């Protein structure tokens, strides 16, 4: 097979940090509040603007509280789990890929929650949602970043539920519909669907969740995790008075991403851009005999973290270690040509490919990438068959 001649204009397909928005340059950060305190009026105003614009773009209900928190989406999820898990109410957690598996492991092995039920499924599948007890607190990852498997809809979650629904939405926010009337706590990060910089997380909580967080005290918490004190919920955190010092350079970049989202048409336009990328990959998979989706059911396929497996018989017969070497060689060829970067599956996932298709990626760049994957596959097959 001859080497393709056309390369993606922006060959950036990492699932985090993700591609910057189209047209981005360092000049977007010219007005960053550098050398100033984040607690100065101007600093608080910028952080509050991130909160306000995030609520507007995502359609978060007015009575929800939103905060900028430390340590990306991981920090946002962990601070909630440590604050709530182990109280009077039992907990269910869905585990079907690396990060959701981490939440289950932390609850079981680190926090050692006694009244814990883990609903597990292998990569490519979802757990049995009908087995979840929504009278308990439930931890659900809306979109499995490392498996490319997502909840197909909100039907399994009752609008009226006794427990809190804690939703890790980091690779779903700004690309998929989130049912705010069925969720209570939602987390995400800047580095995913809007291509922001790393290390900062976002936390949105419903009024019910705010009450629980203000009252819950199953264990002492380090300062970086505290959302409440003896006086109750720390309301200032939800007004831009962050727990620790944020990067104002990253704050400016987050604002740039949010303004871009508004300029292209808001959430509906962001979803359409992501769906367009998935459609391009789906059309290619349909006519390609060596690759298939890791997600077994079409309705559970992610439009952001598009995970693929190499389904050629010769590859499937290889031991896992050799499969990993094949994928490294294949993706390395594409990267050497400058046609696509960071395309290998997550380290804990089955060996395969992962293409980020979030809103900041242009579908035409994915279209240009796919012939390079075909070319690299043929080169790799010849290499490992020799």
Automatic annotation (TrEMBL):
<keyword id="KW-0718">Serine biosynthesis</keyword>
<dbReference type="InterPro" id="IPR015422">
    <property type="entry name" value="PyrdxlP-dep_Trfase_small"/>
</dbReference>
<keyword id="KW-0028">Amino-acid biosynthesis</keyword>
<comment type="similarity">
    <text>Belongs to the class-V pyridoxal-phosphate-dependent aminotransferase family. SerC subfamily.</text>
</comment>
<keyword id="KW-0032">Aminotransferase</keyword>
<dbReference type="InterPro" id="IPR015424">
    <property type="entry name" value="PyrdxlP-dep_Trfase"/>
</dbReference>
<dbReference type="GO" id="GO:0008483">
    <property type="term" value="F:transaminase activity"/>
</dbReference>
<dbReference type="InterPro" id="IPR022278">
    <property type="entry name" value="Pser_aminoTfrase"/>
</dbReference>
<keyword id="KW-0808">Transferase</keyword>
<protein>
    <recommendedName>
        <fullName>phosphoserine transaminase</fullName>
        <ecNumber>2.6.1.52</ecNumber>
    </recommendedName>
</protein>
<keyword id="KW-0663">Pyridoxal phosphate</keyword>
<dbReference type="InterPro" id="IPR015421">
    <property type="entry name" value="PyrdxlP-dep_Trfase_major"/>
</dbReference>
<keyword id="KW-0963">Cytoplasm</keyword>
<dbReference type="InterPro" id="IPR006271">
    <property type="entry name" value="Pser_aminoTfrase_methanosarc"/>
</dbReference>
<comment type="pathway">
    <text>Amino-acid biosynthesis; L-serine biosynthesis; L-serine from 3-phospho-D-glycerate: step 2/3.</text>
</comment>
